[in-house]
Design brief:
- This protein is α+β, with helices and mostly antiparallel strands.
- The chain folds into two domains: 59-263, NADH Oxidase; 314-506, NADH Oxidase (3-Layer(aba) Sandwich).
- The protein is 33% helix and 19% strand.
- The strands form four sheets. Strands 9-14-13-11-15-17-16 form a seven-stranded antiparallel sheet, with helices on both faces. The protein has a six-stranded antiparallel sheet with strand order 1-6-5-4-7-8.
- α8 (190-211) packs across α17 (449-471) and α16 (439-446) crosses α17.
- The longest helix has 23 residues, at 449-471.
- It is globular.
């Protein structure tokens, strides 16, 4: 099955939906003794330690997520210190907490179940403090491990059909997803989580790159088998998800692609035994691109234009002057961030706070699948519970008009509780933000790979929402949902769309002293 046979995406999407009855008819119990390791470990490769206390940029996070560095700037070349900052604030360990069975290591970006299935690799030229090579980043000891020595950027340029951002990048970070590390808890729905969890990490990476004065872009158009081979991945367990070229060099010639023979490097098993979910492997294979010609065709299709129309009473969102916006730096906010476990139901947020979150998080992602610049695949729908100056109810966010369109007025905490898989968080939050997308034109335009794109975009915008919320000392958490019930709740406006992602925002409830 190839990328254009889009029944594969529909089969996976419909087969991985949650419903009231699917949760009860197919209960899943966690085998704690078989919990996977949270790190990929190469026991026989010496680590190259990275500086842990890199100088921080001091750039306000709202500026970093809304003002990317232009890719046309000449000779923006990172050094090893820049890479250390990018890797740490994207995937590094920022907190740890003891629990009866051991310790949980919390990372810089939110991740479903704190299972951290996204791995990072670096393909670089000779940089200040780092020789050219293919490296794996290990957050456990904040180090790189050399997998291949030499400059393999020509391989990535070839795999991306000479995508300019990749061809001119001194270094490219590759994100991969490890099936079992997340499927241990979430089973076949993990393939959706790849997009969400890769996306929240990318939001950090793009912000830190911009704060460091380095251009960065999400590249989804590449020949999968070539990138997987370069990283020496066992593709029944781990697969490449996206590339992020970092910086730019004006050099006119790239090194020729090099031979990349299988390495067979030893890694420590994640668990005593792994369970394979064929639906995920089938979905990934069906969304893979097989040649540079197919990458070019995939990238050159006409864009998907938004189809949603405004309806009902519209509330224009206020935009605070820049001097009144929070000035918390990118690094401060990332270190502060953590998925909120309880919200204060009695608290409220201001309309200006909500407006700031929506405005700054949706100003457009630098990505090869989003044309024209500023385009967006996902629509945002809200259930507002307690936002000062805004009636409780269901809303549609008119991004281009910067308005909230009232779909129905009312108190919907009970409905939010149900839609969010009967969890308290969406009922106690001040506002719930649902990402919905019309998959039909997206899949027709991008093929099965459009399913990767729409999930990844939702996760990345969601990651920016985290950063914008925490910059204002609010809390946020990502949640799963009953798919069709979400669409029914927001219909008829949401008719024919699909539920993609959910974020709840509010004020964290302070814990009482023990």
């Amino acid at each position: 099955m190839n990328n254009r046979e889009i029944q594969a995406a529909w089969k996976y999407h419909n087969g991985s939906k949650h419903s009231y009855w699917s949760i009860r008819n197919h209960p899943h119990f966690l085998d704690w003794a078989n919990r996977p390791l949270p790190f990929k470990i190469y026991p026989k490769i010496e680590p190259l330690p990275l500086l842990r206390d890199v100088p921080q940029t001091g750039v306000a996070v709202l500026s970093a997520i809304s003002e990317p560095v232009p890719s046309s700037l000449p000779d923006s070349v990172p050094g090893v210190q820049d890479l250390a900052r990018l890797l740490y604030f994207s995937a590094g360990i920022t907190k740890q907490r003891a629990y009866p069975g051991g310790e949980i290591y919390f990372r810089a970006a939110a991740c479903t179940g704190a299972l951290y299935e996204i791995e990072l690799y670096v393909v670089s030229s000779d940089l200040r403090g780092l020789d050219a090579g293919v490296y794996h980043f290990n957050p456990a000891d904040v180090s790189l491990r050399l997998l291949r020595k030499g400059d393999f950027r020509g391989n990535l340029a070839q795999a991306t059909a000479m995508e300019p951002a990749v061809a001119h990048a001194p270094a490219t970070i590759i994100c991969t997803g490890t099936y079992w590390r997340n499927a241990w808890k979430y089973q076949a729905r993990t393939y959706r989580h790849f997009g969400w969890d890769n996306g929240t990490l990318l939001a950090n990476m793009l912000a830190v790159s911009a704060a460091s004065g380095l251009s960065a872009e999400i590249v989804l158009g590449f020949v999968d088998v070539e990138v997987n081979r370069l990283l020496d991945l066992d593709t029944r367990r781990e697969v490449s998800l996206c590339l992020v070229p970092i910086g730019r060099t004006s050099e006119s010639s790239l090194p020729a692609p090099r031979e990349a023979p299988a390495l067979g490097l030893e890694t420590i098993p994640l668990s005593q035994h792994e369970v394979e979910y064929p639906a995920m492997l089938e979905m990934h294979d069906a969304s893979s691109l097989e040649s540079a010609e197919e990458v070019n065709q995939w990238r050159s299709k006409p864009p998907v234009l938004p189809s949603s129309v405004l309806a009902g009473e519209a509330v224009r969102l206020p935009r605070l002057p820049e001097e009144e916006q929070p000035k918390d730096t990118t690094e401060q906010v990332i270190l502060r961030r953590g998925s909120t476990r309880t919200f204060d139901r009695a608290a409220s947020i201001t309309l200006a706070q909500l407006s700031t979150i929506l405005d700054y998080a949706t100003r457009g992602l630098p990505a090869d699948f989003l044309e024209p610049p500023g385009a967006q695949l996902n629509d945002l729908y809200l259930i507002v519970h307690s936002v000062q100056g805004l009636k409780p109810g269901a809303y549609f966010f008119g991004r281009e008009q910067n308005t909230l369109d009232l779909l129905k007025e009312g108190e919907f905490r009970a409905e939010a509780h149900h839609l969010g898989l009967e969890q308290e968080l969406p009922a106690d939050a001040c506002v719930d933000i649902f990402f919905l997308a019309d998959l039909k034109p997206i899949l027709e335009r991008y093929g099965n790979r459009g399913y990767r794109a729409v999930q990844l975009e939702a996760g990345t915008i969601g990651g920016r929402i985290y950063l914008a919320a925490y910059s204002q000392h609010l809390g946020a958490t990502g949640l799963t949902f009953f798919d069709d019930d979400v669409i029914n709740f927001f219909s008829p406006h949401a008719k024919d769309k699909s539920a993609i992602f959910l974020l709840a925002i509010g004020k964290p409830r302070k814990r009482k002293p023990q």
